[in-house]
What we know:
CATH topology of the domain at 2-179 and 218-243: Rossmann fold
Shape: globular
Strand content: 15-25%
Mean pLDDT: 92
Structural class: alpha/beta
CATH architecture of the domain at 2-179 and 218-243: 3-Layer(aba) Sandwich
CATH superfamily of the domain at 2-179 and 218-243: NAD(P)-binding Rossmann-like Domain
Helix content: 25-40%
Distance between the termini: 36 Å
Radius of gyration: 19 Å
Low-confidence stretches: none
Largest sheet: 7 strands, parallel
CATH class of the domain at 2-179 and 218-243: Alpha Beta
Order of helices and strands: EHEEHEHHEHEEHEEEHEEHEHHH
Amino acid sequence: MKALVTGGAGFIGSHLVDGLLGRGHSVTVVDDLSTGVCDNLAHLQPDEPLEVIVDSVLNESLVDELVAGADVIFHLAAAVGVQWVLDHPIRSLETNLRGTEVVLAAADRHRRKVLVASTSEVYGKNDSGPLREDDDRILGSSKVSRWLYATAKAADEALALAYAQERGLPTVVVRFFNTIGPRQTGRYGMVVPRFVDQALSDEPITVYGDGQQTRCFTYVGDVVRSVITLTETPACWGDVFNVGRDREISMDGLAQLVVDLTGSRSKIVHVPYDEAYRGGFEDMRRRVPDVSRLRRTIGYAPDTGLEEALFRIIAAHPRQPSTFRVP
Length: 327
């Protein structure tokens, strides 16, 4: 199979490239390196069937050419991370909205299969749960930057599903729930690499808010397995799937677990949202996926435990303690 991975130099994208190459597929990556880095692919051998193109998915002629030469498109190119979206709202909207439109239009012209990566952010402030794919979205004011990203990704989903319904294009949408693993950076607001960085430096671990908000964390290897298997499953096309591990933990609990696993001397401190982000930031208290649809469709749902995922992240960190050993 010839696969095109947009955003393939990013955190999830680079692991997806690993997974595709490991299955014997050839891969073309297009990434503008706004948040991805070539180092994420530097471990791959020169003789791998891989082509990396540094360019934007907004380049319509390039995308058309690459889509024409692919069998399936994994569209992961997007603005990532709460902090990055808050700092670059216009670029976030352009990449998420226009980029997806360009990819889907090219796929429609050449009749290619497309997987569109979305996010649990589309559920907004709906903190009931576990959240099913058909549950309501509850968003705050359009003046609050946090919800610009959720709105854009929901529009991406709507466009993908419209192509499936009206044009018969094989599309599938996947909603990621807090994916974690090696190569993830804390620069864009990702909580786990930030906590690990702080713990390994014996710096205070900064928990935003009161620390009682809960999330579910999913190991990137499980995400890759789920994504590739979906595109190999005929029943997936035209549908939406949560991709996440359905075990939740509070931010205080996560911070303490990181301290325990690293043997850090860090103290846990709480930082009000208004100090961590600009004023008017809104958050949700809980976000838990229902992954029964994924499990029914592919016979699998992410199952790597949080401790094991954290061990792998710490082991790959350049500042890991010399005495650290993965069990």
